[in-house]
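Narrative of activities, Objective 1.

The group set out to show that a structural description can be obtained from nothing but a protein's sequence at a throughput compatible with the screening campaign. Below is one input-output pair from the validation batch, recorded exactly as produced.
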Amino acid sequence: MGRFLGLRTLWFLLMGLWIQAEKHSVPHGLDVECLGNLVGLSLDGSLLWEHRLEIDAADGSTFVPITERVASQCGFRRRSDPWGNTMLFASIQNCFVEGADDDQIFDLTIRLRLSGSPKSDAVMHTVSKTCPYSAWASREIICNHNYMEVSVRRRIPNVEEFEKELPEYEGFDDGDENRSPLKLWKVQFHTGEAKAMTTEEAHDKGYGLSISSTRALLRSPFNTPESTTVDVSGVPMQLIKASTYLKRKWMMKQLYSAAACPTGGVTFTEEMITWRLPLRISPLLSSDYVHIIEYHMGIQGKRLDASIMAARNYKLTMTDSYFIVEIPVGSVDGYYKSRALDYQYYITYNVEPMLEVLWKEDAMYDDTRYKVLYPIITPPMARPPFIQDNTVPEKRVFDFFVGSFLSDVELVNITFTTGVMSIAEANVQGFNVQEHILPTGLKGYSLQVPFSDPVVHKENTAVDVTDYILPVTFGFVTLPENGPFSHPGMLKASLQDVVLPTVIGTCDLEYFYVTVEYGSQGHNFVTVVGQRELSPDIAEEYGYIHNDTHFSIAVHFLAQDAVFEMVWASLLRSRLNVVLKNPVHGWNLNDFSLSCSFPMTMIECFSNGTMTALAVKVESVPDLILSQLTLRDSRCKPAYSDHIFAFFSFSLNSCGTTRKFINNYMIYENEVSLGSQKVTTAADQYLITVSCYYGINATYTLPFSTVPNPEPVVHAALGVFMVGMQLALDSSYSVFYLDEHYPVVKYLREPLYFEVELMRTTDPQVELFLENCWATTEEERTSVPKWDIIVDGCENLADPYHTIFHGVSADARVHFRSHFKRFEVKMFSFTLDGVALKGQIFVHCDVVICDVNSPTDSLCSRACMNKQNMSTASKRVRRSTENTHMEQVSSGPIVLI
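Output recorded for this entry:
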């Protein structure tokens, strides 16, 4: 029989050599090792390549999947790291091992199934391993993460006598059906309340029970109802005790089994992990004396020699009470794992030390081998991400990096003020999100966001400085559990890049023309003209025109928002202030002033011995009330006043006027003031000297008296007037066609709105009247054909489309209504042989300027211009030429289409 066993052992050893030779066919990265009473299989994560790994164990000709239940019941344990590297530990006495040679040689066949992915097909690897193990202790205890296992040597005392009685035993049958091998019968647990159950019942509850030729085994998952937790020297341990009964026809054998595995005993500092295991595990001992034969430290089931431990700063010491293992946090045999807790980023350090002890109590007791594989995870350590801002503002792109993370972190989305974007969407948006692996093995992500993108908020902290602000929140997950966490950030860059709005302006004889260019930030400012913000109503008053780059206005020099700087006899210097303000901070973006001199008769001297003087409210006296002004004689007040002007008309021998002679001139002077005796305010200093010069050699009729004439008689004198005619866009008469708009194109019967204005005078005693108006096809006013529009101040009754006279209302442009006349005609065409001729027309008018106080002027007293009915043309009467002045005006061309 010994020869037979020797040959059998030799055959298994040869098989082991054959398997070792065949290992070359196993892919690189897949390895199997014999680790004493364990078998270790390692699989490199690179072999998975997006596959899902499933593990089967060979059971004869079939394969059994290693599920969690099967693993804890049959002695397997699987663990993986974040990179997919997988370790499989199997007890050498697992359910599927084939033992031989009295439990000296063990065979295990494992199949790895890598399920298919969208990028590749399924892959399958089958690997077999034969492991010898002969260093059996009487009792072997293994504490793994998911199970605890105890196996004891089966002893049959007085074997020779037993063989005589039962020659066939332990599985050797001579053919007698009454004789059979020992079989597991039942198990009775002794922790807590005693509980017995059959083998089948124990198996159903997840226990593993087996016997071999030399050993009996009990395997229990942690935290079963039959186990309990005990405190051993301050270390909590899971304990199970049981008696296993073996039975055959003529005999029964009881084997006592106990296992105790630590569930604590670890303490941490930032630099060191300390693991304590009691030297005397009292639930496993029968006496107080323990002799430690040997003890070893290992990592992941593999023993380490002293040189490796020293190189890695590992320590294993034995005190009177404990075995103490010390492992530096971050050692090469462990790994860091990302954790997401309360949406914050943490890491833990994971390492799995092994402690193996062989002890013997005394000569009466057998030895015990005690092996613990104890996975340790440090408490979560906060590792807040950081944002590294690499932005160069002049490039106008936010360029930044967020990190750093372990490789088991993935960026999944980014939240901007406009919403959440996936990484793919962010790249489509042009943000160039990229992952980077750092030299340390950590990773991070870079991102570029243009300043011009809508996700970037813009603010101005100074007049010409823009702050570009990017609030961003990164959304991450930890793999493979998809634990979410986020990290917010705020990036800011400043550029002196604001092109401020600009203002330019020109003047003609009546208007300020102002153009405002918007600058780089568009029309996001407030415009103040004079003292008023440019509201829609004021903008309409000033002929506001705009487009995407600028706007323009035209402000009359007598408008409310203009200020008068200086006054001369025939000129008025007016200034228009335009201020552009930031509406949020109130900064002045541009402060523009345009001063121009406009022709305006301020003093008029008449040959009949009267004088008119115009006083204006100048900037230097802002509080002046013009109606309170007087001449030297305080009884002589303005004939007319408003917020801009005070108009005086008086005889040269009244109101305190003085006379003097200088060379060949006789000079009459008076003063306009508030007449204050004591100067207390700026208004009290207001003083205008008005003078009239008359040549001494000329002959005039001049009444003169040293006392004021309470009822002066005013006679009009001849003067030079300017009259203008223009075409308005509509009946509001607020916007007019300019020179560059001519020829104006109109449709037949479309209304034409004409305005005739008496210009460059502020005399309210004169009035403008239209005597005759007509249309021609040529610019020459005397050309033919000709069609009358207004005849003798009234509409042409022969025209089926009568001329319509429009009233004039005072506004910022119209200060004296008597100086304006407005009328409306329908667009028409001349005919030839009854056929309408398309072409251009010109409109001409004879204008009469009258003294409104003269009752003798028949035209100026006509009613047509005041819209009184005229029944027939016979009621028209010719004007008198007395006290009148005639001018001529024209407008056109106007083209009929």
